[in-house]
Amino acid sequence: GSRWSLKGTTALVTGGTRGIGHAVVEELAEFGATVFTCSRNEEELNKCLNEWKEKGFSVYGSVCDASSPSQREELIRQVASAFNGKLNILVNNAGTNVRKPTIEYTAEDYSKVMTTNLDSAYHLCQLAYPLLKESGNGSIVFISSVASLISVGTGSIYAVSKAAINQLTKNLACEWAKDNIRSNCVAPWYTKTSLVEQFIANKEFVDEVLSRTPIKRIAETHEVSALVTFLCLPAASYITGQTVSVDGGFTVNGFS
Ligand code: NDP
What we know:
The protein is an alpha/beta fold. The chain has 8 helices and 7 strands. It has helices spanning 19-30, 42-54, 69-82, 107-135, 156-175, 197-200, 203-211, 221-232; strands spanning 10-14, 34-39, 59-63, 89-92, 138-143, 181-188, 243-246. A 7-stranded parallel sheet has the order 3-2-1-4-5-6-7, sandwiched between helices. Helix 1 crosses helix 8 (221-232) and helix 3 runs parallel beside helix 4 (107-135). The structure holds NADPH dihydro-nicotinamide-adenine-dinucleotide phosphate.
């Protein structure tokens, strides 16, 4: 039934050319959404757009560095024009990390992580608000991380940027409910993507991660995109303000 379909809806997914964002673009499209995505690498973006076209998905895209305020404004102008001023779904996925001990971070590291992870999501919500409202039925999903909930060795700036996202999820859920816009957040643990490939290629590191993870493997991107997609469906119409972990039980594990 239509509770389990996104037919006729429009979506913007930042960072859709690789990893979790790529899986989200495909799954939203499979459920019938028309999707707009962006990334910084034009060649990779065009390659993805061609592949999606061959698969029969409706996906548009443009180059945008989500950490740049002016490029975010241009992105939303393009989305508004492609979708007649209406947007049902905003997935704030683009993110980055720099891992160091806290006292070694430079101001540049701080700015890179915060502008990419937090400023981009915050400003895109502001810019997309009129479009989400105009659609009559809006859903925002943020990609956070379990690093926003507990201390893991991913660096403190990343953790802070993602914790801010969790609270933004709650505030927007309350502030924009009157506009029929929901806001939810997905917090993954290690997922097979280019962001973490150097870490998950290290067997000793993976063994340590899995020793704390009840489901003894690293997540696949489709295991994260499934929840993102569910949160956008009409079936999730009463769910707002929530952060849900996709972590194989990692954050609920004590000791045995
Ligand atoms: P990847 O690095 O594999 O993919 C990131 C995607 O976003 C690429 O398409 C990349 O394209 C794009 N991107 C990166 N920076 C920007 C930018 N400034 N502007 C526009 N596009 C950008 O990352 P993941 O899929 O792993 O990560 C996606 C989200 O999931 C992030 O927010 C991350 O923090 C979060 N996450 C990931 C986990 C994991 O284990 N993988 C665990 C927990 C959370 P390009 O580089 O060409 O711009």
